[in-house]
Design a protein that fits this description.
Layout: E1 2-7, H1 13-25, E2 29-34, H2 36-46, E3 60-62, E4 81-87, H3 89-97, H4 103-114, E5 118-122, H5 129-141, E6 144-145, H6 159-174
Parallel strand pairs: 1-2, 1-4, 2-3, 4-5, 5-6
Helix pairs in contact: 1-6, 3-4, 3-5
Bound molecules: flavin mononucleotide (FMN).
Length: about 190
Amino acid sequence: MTVFVAVTGASGAIYADRAIRALAEHGVETWATLTPTAADIVRHELSLAPGDLGGADARVTWFACDDLSAPPASGSSCADAMLVVPCSMGTLGRIAGGAADTLIARAADVCLKERKPLVLVPREMPLNLIHLRNMTALTEAGAILLPASPHFYDRPASIEELVATVVGRALVHLGVPNVDQPRWSAPPDR
Ligand SMILES: Cc1cc2nc3c(=O)[nH]c(=O)nc-3n(C[C@H](O)[C@H](O)[C@H](O)COP(=O)(O)O)c2cc1C
């Protein structure tokens, strides 16, 4: 399985780092790209060079985000699934509008037309009506909107564990096999 990971200029670069690590841990081939703003945010939030996202074991194939002839841009050579993490409202709007003018917008467009899983992890607050309408349009077109909205019910003890609650759900929706997700069960005293 191949997953195309697009990292955009929203806060939450740690979600992209964790997602690329998790894909490698599951033996998934990873293609990736990032926008110029995402590169700045990766440096600022993680003190990492963008190419080091996912760690040394990740074996990521990187593409320039303006390379419209890269494999993810074509229905005949695209990945099996695509993850936009974190997803800015700017990129979300471009995908919703069908602009297909960057590698990310085009690859997302391809996923939708080829009926392949497209999982977007938006991060913005509060949301305006344009954001909400764009999310509705994307959901109607078949994308999965999976907000960077971690859960707390298994009492995460660190930021990494909190982040993993979102990334794990994203992997499930991408169709990655054998993802071990904690399942909610009510405590015995309830
Ligand atoms: C430090 C920083 C944090 C940002 N955080 C967010 C965010 O959480 N969500 C968002 O939608 N935009 C955020 N933005 C704005 C986007 O980066 C901006 O709209 C950009 O044009 C998005 O382009 P891109 O999607 O091509 O990266 C942030 C910008 C900066 C500089």
